Amino acid sequence: MKKHSWIQFASIGFCLSIALLFGYSPAASAQQDSDQPPSDNPQCTDENLHGRYGYIVSGWLVSPPPVALAPIAAVGIVTFDGEGVLNAQDTFNNSGVISRRGVLPQTGVGTYTVNSNCTGSATVAGDFAGLTFDFMIVPGTGGSEFSLIVTDSGTVETGAAIGTVANGDAQRIPDEECTLATVQGTYRLLAHGFAPAPGNAPSASVGIRIVDGAGHLSGHDTVSMNGMIQPRDVFSTYTVNLNCTGTQSWIDGRTFDWVIVAGGAQVFFIRTNPGTINSGTFKKQSGRDVED
Description:
eight-stranded antiparallel β-barrel, disordered N terminus, Lipocalin, mainly beta
């Protein structure tokens, strides 16, 4: 049954924006028309993807008629070696069931190819079950983002075709190791999710998070749960690992996994309590650090 969940997720169609280490090469700029922006005539190679990238995705597994929608979300890290090999790991939530993919002894090894026109394709094996996707480096970004769509149009399990609709984004993780102080300041919160039972009740929240850089977080947000509005104060602790992953624990028992990107300017998170789905981002507000 566990393997089936990987196969289901391998039919994902989602768009993902990724921050890259390298821009377009000087040779590419020399070949471009002087009256056009550099992105109009890009020249890319596998080296355009290099290093670690944090990502967040969310969406739905879709079954054939009578249609059943199963909400999904994931937060993780994908590492590109600049020579066509990748490795992925994430925290995956399928209808409130939490699993971790690509974490040893399991694997999330794959391959990727970047074409000279900045399109490409990739495959992730291991417990990602051969997930395949096509991607395109976004024009005008100088190689800082790309979009992708999973090219597994559907799988057949127990006689039913399963498809997925999901989207998300990602940013590069700097080479420096992370500490508690990497996440510090005032952050804007945006989150959404579902309570799968009963009836996939949707939820969303916006607010602020104040992080002290020493393991403590507070904040305030407004939550809409299935259309019911509620203001909320938040108090929690957090941990940070050297690889820029982390965890958050609220005083009411809610727990989350983190991936820290952009040198601490943004955090991707996913709730890890079984039975519900919630994911989102903290985005640091410039010039608004925590006061001494």
